[in-house]
Amino acid sequence: MNHFLQLIAIVSLQYGPIVVQNEQSYVLTSSCGGVVTEGSSCVLTCETSAVTETPIVWTRGTNPPYGVKRTTCTTSDPAVPSDYVLACPGTSFTLTITNASVIRDKTTWKCGGSLGGKESDAINLDVKVQNEQSYVLTSSCGGVVTEGSSCVLTCETSAVTETPIVWTRGTNPPYGVKRTTCTTSDPSVPSDYVLACPGTSFTLNITAASVTRDKTTWKCGGSLGGKKSDAINLDVKVQNEQSYVLTSSCGGVVTEGSSCVLTCETSAVTETPIVWTRGTNPPYGVKRTTCTTSDPSVPSDYVLACPGTSFTLNITAASVTRDKTTWKCGGSLGGKKSDAINLDVKGSPSTATAQPPKLLYLLFLIPVIIIGISIGIGISVFVLKVRRRIREQV
Asked: What's the rounded Cα separation, in Å, for the pair 93 and 69?
């Protein structure tokens, strides 16, 4: 093409500018009538009004155009897909899409000359998903898996297609997976989900099943249509051996105002939230992942921790009216609950008023008694003397 342009420049200098024929125009047609099924072929024909050495350009949507030389009927553009077959019969140029793709070829197409002339009208090529395309979802675990174990979900498609698949988990936004790369750009996909695309299938391996996350309905289907799979209700069971043992650092007895740490030991690490039950009060749910509770009724002096396979609740200031009751712990979704602990909160020893010894009472009472007796004798003697005087005067 460079030699051709150089020739035009030389001739233009000697004889004046060379103009592409005014009547040169381009008409674009398709062998499929503008509609093709995914995976099938469609021939686009660009008819020129006269034979010309001017290169043609194919324009696909907003992509950069592909330039095709008339003399060699080739293109040096590396972006041209390998399943596009070029030909240049007579005054025409053809582009055969041998394996139509929804995500690539469903767009507007045009053709024209690289050096001017009337460009063709656009063709809107519609690539349909295969009518028979359907999706069947199965699971390697039969729909039941133990927490922490793995389960492979397989979405079988009725034909190989480039159409992305979508996995739907409960009411969460679906995850789109590309066939060509078998990857997803969705950051919300958990890291323990392993994706694969063998043959006509897509698989999602849940390597560590979670009760709170994976126990829900699952579906799969094409992102651009087709019959979606029936739903699978995945049941994630809490481990049968999961049990809870409750102990206290204070041996079940604590003085009011002092601290006592309750420890709920689980038989295995689990994401299942734990619940603390205090008497007849509503239980407090505590998440393993964050070791927090959203329950506003939890007293501020209760300190939560989640070391290893344990959950701890530190009552930093024990109260007789609040904490003196039975305590239990267990999983929010099942498992064997702990035995109860009867926490006894003793009242603080009050400062008793010093009681005087009995001897002091005696020492105090004896003088009082003597004085009383003396006063009584004195009064009696005085009365007798008064009576005598009265008699003597009479």
From this structure: 10
Question: Judging by beta carbons within 10 Å of its beta carbon (0-12, 13-18, 19+), is residue 137 exposed, middle or buried?
Answer: buried
Question: For the range 277-286, what are the long-range contacts, defined as Cβ-Cβ under 8 Å and sequence gap of 24 or more?
Answer: 277/327, 277/328, 277/329, 277/330, 278/323, 278/325, 278/326, 278/327, 279/325, 279/326, 279/327, 285/332, 286/311
Task: Count CA within 13 A, CB hemisphere, residue 335.
Answer: 30
Q: Which CATH superfamily is domain 244-346 in?
A: Immunoglobulins (2.60.40.10)
DSSP state of 227: B
By CB atoms closer than 10 A (0-12, 13-18, 19+), residue 191 is exposed
Instruction: Please choose, from the candidates 335, 346, 327, the residue with its C-alpha nearest in 3D space to the C-alpha of residue 262.
Output: 327
Numbered ranges of CATH 2.60.40.10 in the chain:
2-128, 135-237, 244-346
Residue 228: Cβ within 10 Å count: 16
Cβ–Cβ under 8 Å, residues 229 and 135: yes
The pTM assigned to this predicted structure is 0.48
The radius of gyration of the chain from alpha carbons, rounded to an integer in Å, stands at 47
Residue 241 DSSP one-character state: T
Q: Where are the alpha helices (DSSP H) in the chain?
A: 2-15, 102-105, 211-214, 320-323, 358-393
CATH number of the structural domain 2-128: 2.60.40.10
Per-residue pLDDT of 219-254, as tens digits, reads 998 876 667 889 999 998 876 657 788 999 999 999
Cα 211 from Cα 222, distance rounded (Å): 27
β-bridge mates for residue 110, sequence order:
59
**Are the C-beta atoms of 314 and 325 separated by less than 8 Å?**
no
CATH fold for the domain made of 135-237: Immunoglobulin-like (2.60.40)
Q: What single string gives the DSSP state of each residue in 107-167?
A: SEEEEEETT-SBPPPPEE-EEEPPTT-BEEEEETTTTEEETTS-EEEEEEESS---SPEEE
Residue 284, Cβ density class (10 Å: 0-12 exposed, 13-18 middle, ≥19 buried): buried
Biggest CA pair distance of the chain? 186
Spatial separation of the C-alpha atoms in residues 35 and 85, rounded to whole Å: 18
Q: Cα 311 to the chain's mean position, in Å? A: 24
Residue 75: pLDDT band with limits 50, 70, 90: confident
